[in-house]
Amino acid sequence: MSSAMKALVKRSPGPGFVLADVPVPAVGPSDVLIRVEKAGLCGTDHHIYAWDGWAQQRIKTPIVVGHEFMGTVAAVGSEVRAIRVGERVSAEGHIADLTCLLCRTGQSHICEHVEIIGVDRDGAFAEYIAIPEYNVWRLAADIPDVSAAIFDPLGNAVHTVMAAGVSVKSVVVSGAGSIGLMAIAVARAAGATAIYAIDVNPARLELAKQLGADAAFLSNDSTLVDVIRALTGGNGADVLLEMSGHGAAIDLGLQMLRNGATAALLGLPSGPVTLNLTDRVIFKGITVLGINGRRMFETWYQADALVRSGRVDPRAVITHVLPYTEFDKAFELMEKGEAVKIVLDFKGDIAKP
Amino acid sequence: MSSAMKALVKRSPGPGFVLADVPVPAVGPSDVLIRVEKAGLCGTDHHIYAWDGWAQQRIKTPIVVGHEFMGTVAAVGSEVRAIRVGERVSAEGHIADLTCLLCRTGQSHICEHVEIIGVDRDGAFAEYIAIPEYNVWRLAADIPDVSAAIFDPLGNAVHTVMAAGVSVKSVVVSGAGSIGLMAIAVARAAGATAIYAIDVNPARLELAKQLGADAAFLSNDSTLVDVIRALTGGNGADVLLEMSGHGAAIDLGLQMLRNGATAALLGLPSGPVTLNLTDRVIFKGITVLGINGRRMFETWYQADALVRSGRVDPRAVITHVLPYTEFDKAFELMEKGEAVKIVLDFKGDIAKP
Amino acid sequence: MSSAMKALVKRSPGPGFVLADVPVPAVGPSDVLIRVEKAGLCGTDHHIYAWDGWAQQRIKTPIVVGHEFMGTVAAVGSEVRAIRVGERVSAEGHIADLTCLLCRTGQSHICEHVEIIGVDRDGAFAEYIAIPEYNVWRLAADIPDVSAAIFDPLGNAVHTVMAAGVSVKSVVVSGAGSIGLMAIAVARAAGATAIYAIDVNPARLELAKQLGADAAFLSNDSTLVDVIRALTGGNGADVLLEMSGHGAAIDLGLQMLRNGATAALLGLPSGPVTLNLTDRVIFKGITVLGINGRRMFETWYQADALVRSGRVDPRAVITHVLPYTEFDKAFELMEKGEAVKIVLDFKGDIAKP
Amino acid sequence: MSSAMKALVKRSPGPGFVLADVPVPAVGPSDVLIRVEKAGLCGTDHHIYAWDGWAQQRIKTPIVVGHEFMGTVAAVGSEVRAIRVGERVSAEGHIADLTCLLCRTGQSHICEHVEIIGVDRDGAFAEYIAIPEYNVWRLAADIPDVSAAIFDPLGNAVHTVMAAGVSVKSVVVSGAGSIGLMAIAVARAAGATAIYAIDVNPARLELAKQLGADAAFLSNDSTLVDVIRALTGGNGADVLLEMSGHGAAIDLGLQMLRNGATAALLGLPSGPVTLNLTDRVIFKGITVLGINGRRMFETWYQADALVRSGRVDPRAVITHVLPYTEFDKAFELMEKGEAVKIVLDFKGDIAKP
Hints:
Number of helices of chain A: 11
Largest sheet of chain A: 7 strands, mixed
Helix content of chain A: 25-40%
Radius of gyration of chain A: 20 Å
Number of strands of chain A: 19
Strand content of chain A: 25-35%
Structural class of chain A: alpha/beta
Distance between the termini of chain A: 29 Å
Oligomer: homotetramer
Order of helices and strands of chain A: EEEHHEEEEEEEHHEHEHEHEHEEHEHEHE
Shape of chain A: globular
Largest interface: A-B, 40 and 40 residues
């Protein structure tokens, strides 16, 4: 392979990405080099593209962006144990240190020293990415490329659903963005007996119902707490999956829960949140779970089982597949709210999802 | 028995209690009538005594106050199954409806229709109290009267400790009032390998160490997060038991936790709390547990096992035993911070704890 | 109502039941009298009918038999709290003492002093049954009578599935009798991503597939362990639901599990079982769960949610609905293996399931 | 360092070990070379020494034996991340493949492809051992050498206790060999409120009481089930830790449990076990846990916390520290039952435990 490659790069502070020629990454003894074929576009990518406050604080330039992807193994380091050249793979984008308490006790998804590809080190919007073998996930042949490309956000949905536990429970999903929508499909497959979706966007609510929500509601409906309570036999819901990250939605979601319920928080509030902990959490005996990333690799096995069994089809949230060269158009679609999930193609054969 | 009895009564809105003659309570078919012998004084009793904002909203007068107690069974209703006249008992003061989803699934401690003795219906600061058999707890002969009198707050401590799970874990106890202090003793007995107490009061910190804290700190120590982290191998603590109910203490306590830790909240903030949920809970993968009351009756069995095995001695927090007629003096001691736990005697033989 | 009623009675030791006139049962202060409308026929009923060794040891005659049923409340005792005359109900047939450690900690389904209706005291194959209000389960209007009549065995299936935990897991169901078949439907609804059924009867395997099994196998297939391993990515299944009660099936089922898996045992071996605990359980790190009855009343809430959401339809296992007067024919159908589940009608309007 | 070293070697099939000069092991890129200082003698070592049936089937000669040890890092491979030359360490002796489902989901202790040092590959009864960095456990300075040398069997005890969960529970420990004895100490520290030890050997029962058992009983006491039931309020014990591996002891232990209890099985029966699963497990709603090895590395962190906090002192079971050259004498002491735990010294300075 040649020593240069195409990549989407944040060259320096400020909005936008450039399509640039950069060196193919070096492959360490425990690393795997992957020829990227399809990659998913995430809200985080847009933060970096738009160069918002969070991005200005976090991102060191220059950096190759992107973290959701799949491709084919192009080379392996000398100490690689199991992965072979030619295998079709995706990868966990959180590079944990593997030596700390958390990594040594099965919780590397919350390693304090994590580095995220496309955020803290070079990422996946490129022809090649090098990543530790530990992070590589082998793909079964029956998983479509576009589905495999978004195993990362699907994994966020799976982690949230499985941490909360939805089997034979009633579930409120607050926020029907691409992860919230996948959480609905996952909750349905994982055994929820009732799913109620909430969002500000009527079109998303329609999609929520297609993906398995039993009912869907606009969040500005002032009777919503009563409605959910009525739908759940007067008790309130068993589980809240909070995917919106809005303080008011968190407060509203907690009100919809019955005493003794579980709330899993994945959505990230951009600032402090004011809550009546006494009434919303303590008196009710609520369990609140902070959810971050994907469990390595329990979440990946679960996502694999859900997709391969046909219980979940992530393609339902993919609205566009575009050549990676059209990244500016992709972000424009995102900004206009015309897309749910966009997949970029880095290989050339753009199949319809 | 005579049809009138002595009781501490909140007659009408306003500060103070009166010592009054009131009718001995009626005993329904499923009720047990108990001759009260010893009763514990709780912060809630003081709220009602002082007639603060919470009390003004919640309390309907007239009412017999008090909810922590022990005594001897004086009479039983026709449908009582197991409890017999003459048995020595305490009782769970939360009267659940026993017919709702929560009561029917082992969670009657968070029944939405709960009534609390001494708050919502006549209580235990009296010669007699009538209470459903379901709520009565039979006392083993080897449990001292004064210990039995405070099984209710001991149960709060036990519930918090056992919900969090402290076995072979490092534990921060935030707030060393009487329940926090008992939580320290319980956590030690329940298998915590390190216990760190935090309070604003140096005398309480001394007591915390006597009860089993490995170290104790003033909450205004600005290096406290670093200190706890250093004491826990650089990771942060495994468990927070939040007994203070102060917003700033909750925030501080969450900072002391390692990623993936558990925070059990028992202390009740008096107003809304502002938290950086993203950094304190979500990114860290924290589990936050709202804790209310005592599990019926798992908590009581646990408290019984802890006290009877000698692993926990609740007398360590009892600083005063007074005749019930000296209730005004008791509240004065409480207000001055000169008492930790006060037990009132309703029987006459005032033993030293 | 008249003071006599029709009932199926085991009059004295020996085979068969008699249809007899017996007194309508007395209603205690905490009891509910139910006019039985539909009742399910269980293997246990057949043991008593046939008067096998187990029945000879356990049953004291005379006794009204039967324990699976639904009907309408005809009268309530003076201390009944919530149930009203005219309500449509089923009931938990295990009468727990409600005063022991297990009953007081949410585990009354394994109360050591349990009495079972139709086994230890008069049962449900009668026009009326009296039962403590605690045991009565209110039926939603949208649950068909025949489904409601078999909530007891449906509950066995639900308890087994939920105790094991099947959400996003691969599950082997060993034994496809009526409870095994319902367990397949429940496991599917509760989120299993793969279900493999095993039985000796090809017709049952067909039914297993209709109810949601992904594949079904005869138990005498000598390659079965390899087949299940191959179907589960080379690892073995995550969960075994053992409904057969055969020692050889238990051994075989354990071999099909991956290391770290869970086996829930509901089927009752009739004698001691010889197992290689070292290889089948200890080295593999298996969790074995003994399953008995139904959790009160978590299992009932779950069964209710599964049926009312349409995720599970228990009518799929009902092959016959017969007037109760045809009980001899019903047992003959059972003995010949021509029936899966038979419902007896005690009301008169025999609807097709 | 020289290229040859002293080691205890099983040269060829048959009884005994030889003290031989063998090459210092090669150090791969991810390996750590450790100068062994102290090593524990295990029952498994004796099986190999005595060349019993199990050893004849499992062991391929020649092999350096031994798996419990501590020492100092002498060299590290090029890809080693965190461990440095000169560090004081112990190590997990189960070498997992790190690529399978179990290893990738935090369960490498039950990896199906595990290799055990001193059993499947060269072990620790030698001047040097090479082992993957993944397996190395850094020792805190305040852990004595002899304690560190037996972290492996201490870990078996910790894993068993923590898997069962003993916090505020009554616990039967069946079998008071060195691991059973450590399990008693660990259970006491981990919060058990009552511990009952059972063994065939009165001297071991004395030691059991010294280590924290509240009472200790000979296993041939025919009233034992009644005694344990009486000691536990008529209910039976909450937890069984089965360390003996005898079928009759397993049956007896299960009888001592209350309904709904947990039995953790670590002891390995040498042949099939016949159990009345119906009465002992299924009707009682027992949870049976197969326990193997130590959780990587949760168990090690727990052992570390227990020892460093002073809650557990493993030296209590060490009866002898001998120079490794006296290995024949050590096995003789073991065979005569005169030793509990023997530590071999490979460094020269034999300190008293």
